[in-house]
């Protein structure tokens, strides 16, 4: 019987082979594709012409972990503001590369504002929004030629809400000549993929190097996104940017993005991601960065911050103490990461368990680097703490949260302090 069994393995499929594109600002280089890890990016929602507000939001997004930040460049005021935004970021020592998002008038703005073209590290071009009719070809060519002049990579980002209608009509005509025509949905998929690849090929014909092109085909449906990217990934070697174009608000947006991206990432498809969440009024824009990081980290593809394992609670845990402690510790760990990254290499791999009762508390705590098992209803008012699988102490009283936080700090300082070589 044993000889018939094969080893049970886990993990995603081998990553799809792709070219590697470099997005550079100063000494900072972000690689997309090739052997590079999947990159998390985000986009501001401030008025780009408001230099201070935009620079502050970019700083917050970068601090949260966004490795690229895209900004809207939609008019002369926004284009004129880009160099000033970069200058403000430099003063704050924020070196995250900026991506300019262009629609309709990008060819004019890049031509008329060379300092904007230079300050950006990458351009995003939507082929469906660069012009109509005869103007489309010349305006697309102008943007590519400017990217070549300033040595900037380009994301050619097709969106099914703004698909090139001439190309779509061509694909529909081809479909009509088939003996068994495709469904309207399949025709739309083909138009998206064809648009992305043909425009990338045209960009190369115009002189843009193949390793300076990233592709995306954005849709808003989970199954649509999976279908399009599965096919797109087989037809080209360009790095691929993943994301639902309008994921939605709150839990719906998080669930939809997680469902779509997790399937593709598990299949080895995708080189950079953005979670397009609609913030609640007054909501934190950085949430989309955290969700993107957590998708990659929970799948085991990257590590960004120590993870907190916490039980959901049940009738044994009528106290909210463990819920509050889990939330406090998760927030505390994330807030420490900007400093810890520089001081304590490897700390992002740490696991912390905050459990609510004796059923799974001790066991889960032993599996974590540091774990605490809080007393459930009717249990002795004591909280054993486990460090690297061994019970180290028991906490009691009203200051358990503060004492446990101090234990975590002490553990990090000892476990992850760089080794000094004499």
From TrEMBL:
Domain IspG C-terminal: 308-408
Binding site for [4Fe-4S] cluster: 311, 314, 357, 364
Catalytic activity: (2E)-4-hydroxy-3-methylbut-2-enyl diphosphate + oxidized [flavodoxin] + H2O + 2 H(+) = 2-C-methyl-D-erythritol 2,4-cyclic diphosphate + reduced [flavodoxin]
InterPro entries noted in UniProt: Dihydropteroate_synth-like_sf, IspG_bac, IspG_bac-typ, IspG_C, IspG_TIM, NO2/SO3_Rdtase_4Fe4S_sf
Source organism superkingdom: Bacteria
Presence of the UniProt keyword Phosphoprotein in the record: no
Chain ranges of the IspG TIM-barrel domain: 29-292
EC number: 1.17.7.3
Keyword tags: 4Fe-4S, Iron, Iron-sulfur, Isoprene biosynthesis, Metal-binding, Oxidoreductase
MF terms in GO: 4-hydroxy-3-methylbut-2-en-1-yl diphosphate synthase activity (ferredoxin)
Record keyword Flavoprotein present: no
Cofactor note: Binds 1 [4Fe-4S] cluster.
Obligatory cofactor(s): [4Fe-4S] cluster
Name of one Pfam family that matches: GcpE
Protein family (similarity comment): Belongs to the IspG family.
Protein name as catalogued: 4-hydroxy-3-methylbut-2-en-1-yl diphosphate synthase (flavodoxin)
Organism expressing this protein natively: Undibacterium aquatile
Gene this protein is translated from: ispG
């Amino acid at each position: 019987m044993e000889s018939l069994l094969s080893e049970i393995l886990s993990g995603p499929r081998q990553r799809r082979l792709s070219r590697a594109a470099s997005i550079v600002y100063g000494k900072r280089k972000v690689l997309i594709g090739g052997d590079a890890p999947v990159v998390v990016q985000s986009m501001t929602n401030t008025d780009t012409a408001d230099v201070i507000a935009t620079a502050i939001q970019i700083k917050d997004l970068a601090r949260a972990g966004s490795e690229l930040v895209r900004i809207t460049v939609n008019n002369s005021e926004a284009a004129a503001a880009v160099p000033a935004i970069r200058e403000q970021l430099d003063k704050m020592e924020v070196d995250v590369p900026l991506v300019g998002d262009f629609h309709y008038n990008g060819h004019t703005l890049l031509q008329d504002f060379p300092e904007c073209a230079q300050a950006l590290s990458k351009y995003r071009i939507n082929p469906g929004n660069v012009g109509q009719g005869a103007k489309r070809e010349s305006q697309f060519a102008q943007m590519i030629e400017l990217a070549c002049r300033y040595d900037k990579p380009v994301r050619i980002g097709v969106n099914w809400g703004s698909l090139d209608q001439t190309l779509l009509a061509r694909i529909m005509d081809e479909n009509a000549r088939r003996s068994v025509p495709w469904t309207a949905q399949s025709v739309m998929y083909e138009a998206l993929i064809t648009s992305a690849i043909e425009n990338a090929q045209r960009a190369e014909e115009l002189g843009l190097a193949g390793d300076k092109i990233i592709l995306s085909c954005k849709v808003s449906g989970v199954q649509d996104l999976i279908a399009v990217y599965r096919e797109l990934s087989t037809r080209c070697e360009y790095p691929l940017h993943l994301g639902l174009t309008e994921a939605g608000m709150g839990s719906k947006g998080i669930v939809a993005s997680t469902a779509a991206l997790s399937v593709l990432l598990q299949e080895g498809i995708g080189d950079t991601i953005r979670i397009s969440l609609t913030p609640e009024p007054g909501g934190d824009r950085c949430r989309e960065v955290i969700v993107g990081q957590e998708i990659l980290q929970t799948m085991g593809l990257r590590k960004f911050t120590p993870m907190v394992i916490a039980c959901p609670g049940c009738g044994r845990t009528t106290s909210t103490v463990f819920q509050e402690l889990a939330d406090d510790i998760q927030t505390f760990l994330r807030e420490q990461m900007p400093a810890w990254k520089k001081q304590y290499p490897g700390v992002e791999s740490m696991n912390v368990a905050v459990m609510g009762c004796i059923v799974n508390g001790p066991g889960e705590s032993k599996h974590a680097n540091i774990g605490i098992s809080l007393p459930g209803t009717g249990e002795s008012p004591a909280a054993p703490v486990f460090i690297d699988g061994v019970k180290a102490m028991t906490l009691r009283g009203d200051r358990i949260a503060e004492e446990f936080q101090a234990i975590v700090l002490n553990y990090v300082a000892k476990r992850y302090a760089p080794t000094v070589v004499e």
